[in-house]
Write a structure and sequence with these properties.
mainly alpha; 7 helices
């Protein structure tokens, strides 16, 4: 377990970042008043996500690998972080959509149907079960990709 303490710590920090990001989105109105900007603004999450992976892998390099890390070692670290995040994802989604912003799905369905999406389609896409599935698959795939890219940046050339 000690060998993975850095990954666990950064995965938990990432979860806190995700919750804070959702609170920020809600606070600036992206879940209601400015819901039309939700999709575009949510894409900005890529920047703090990349930073968190960079900091995590850099810490692993510095304190676990004595400042010498290969791409493979970095990628495995990023993959472990991604798996932990993915395993915790359903709980995070429950907290976001049951506590932080319980009206989000109703607001998004209203917005989408007003802008020509059929109600049946909107109901199928914008619900807790669908979002848990979507974010589970995206967190594992984007996490692996981000881990791979960051590993290219921080690796030592050998």
């Amino acid at each position: 377990m000690k060998n993975y303490s850095i990954e666990i710590k950064w995965a938990l920090r990432f979860i806190l970042l995700t919750l804070a990001w959702s609170i920020g989105e809600k606070a600036i109105g992206l879940h209601d008043v400015h819901i039309e900007n939700y999709g575009l603004c949510s894409l900005l999450f890529v920047f703090p996500a990349f930073l968190f992976f960079y900091l995590a892998l850099n810490e692993k390099k510095k304190y676990f690998y004595n400042n010498s890390i290969t791409w493979q070692q970095g990628f495995v670290c990023g993959a472990i972080i991604s798996v932990i995040i993915t395993l915790l994802n359903p709980v995070v989604q429950l907290v976001i959509y049951k506590s932080i912003t319980p009206e989000f799905f109703d607001n998004m369905i209203a917005y989408k149907t007003k802008h020509k999406m059929p109600l049946k389609t909107a109901l199928e896409i914008f619900n807790l079960k669908s979002y848990i599935v979507q974010t589970t698959f995206s967190s594992i795939s984007y996490g692996f990709i981000t881990g791979a890219l960051v590993s290219l940046i921080i690796r030592n050339k050998k």
